[in-house]
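My current task is to audit a protein record that another person submitted. What it holds is a sequence and that sequence's fold in token form. Thanks in advance; the entry in question is below.
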Amino acid sequence: MSRRCELTGKPVQYGNSVSHANNKTRRRWVPNLCAVSLLSDALGRTVHLRISAHALRTVEHRGGLDAFFLKSSNEELSVKALRLKKDIAKAKAAKVAAAPAAA
């Protein structure tokens, strides 16, 4: 399991700790990953993801998981998130197609 956010693609970053005496030692910054269960309105179920705290705030800001996937680009999403985005798009299309038939 890699230390990468499944929604935003935020990876581990590497750099140097620099002391007052200008000594440089390698260090790494890991993203604040949280294992969360998010509700998808289109799918009608919860989805388990490992995302950063920043991505969780972004999901809430955009109005939920479905709205986040509508506004996100495919390049930054993981394989699991791309599959979810595709499933949500299919579910929304099926719901729209079924709505005129019911009316």
Remarks:
- The longest strand covers residues 33-40.
- The chain is about 40% helix and 25% strand.
- The chain has a mean pLDDT of 92.
- The chain has one domain: 13-95.
